[in-house]
Amino acid sequence: MGGGWMSKRVKRKSATSKRPKSKLGLPDLDHSKAAVLDSLRSPESKRGYRHAMDKFIQWHCSEPRLSFNKVVATRYRIFLENRGLTAGTINGRLVAVRRLAYEAADAGVLSPEFAASIRRAKGAKKLGVRLGIGSQRRKPAASGRRLSRIR
Predict the structure, then answer these.
(1) Is 50 exceeded by the pLDDT of residue 12?
(2) What domains, with CATH codes, occur in the chain?
């Protein structure tokens, strides 16, 4: 009988062990945000990341979410696209969200699988005209003329 009691106790202990979450609350996100900001050196980078993470946290906490994963990152991208932001702005904000997810995973509050799925979320497509070979040849000549006028 004593052996059966020990096995139940071991099972109970493993069931209550701390596992990474899929749904993060505001304290978890704030802790991860602080870790991201501490890892940056440039004040401009800190300002940009702080703004991007604050906007994401505000959006994420505005209504209940099931979990912090690729679907949430994709929905956030769609939300940003619907606001009319440029692809560069959207992709910059998604980079901050990815860093937030990795810091949460490193701290043990988010599953590494969820952090990896957030990394795979697609960014915004950059639309525009690519310069061909002929345009690249003309570009230095035009800038050379401009420099000669300045001198």
Answers:
(1) no
(2) 20-126 (1.10.150)
Alpha helices in the chain, H assignment, sequence order: 2-15, 26-39, 43-62, 70-82, 87-106, 112-119, 133-150
How many whole angstroms separate alpha carbon 95 and alpha carbon 72? Answer: 14
38-42, 66-70, 126-130, 139-143, range with the lowest pLDDT? 139-143
CA dihedral 118, 106, 40, 83 (to 10 degrees): 20
Type of residue numbered 111 = S
What pLDDT shows up at residue 17? 46
Cβ-Cβ contacts under 8 Å for 18 (sequence gap 6 or more)? 108
Quote the pTM value: 0.67
Q: Which of 147, 142, 73 is nearest to 114 (CA)?
A: 73
**Nearest 5°: phi and psi at 21?**
-90, 165
DSSP 3-state of 121: coil
Going by the DSSP 8-state scheme, the letter that residue 88 receives in this structure is H
Dihedrals phi, psi of 110, to nearest 5 degrees: -130, 140
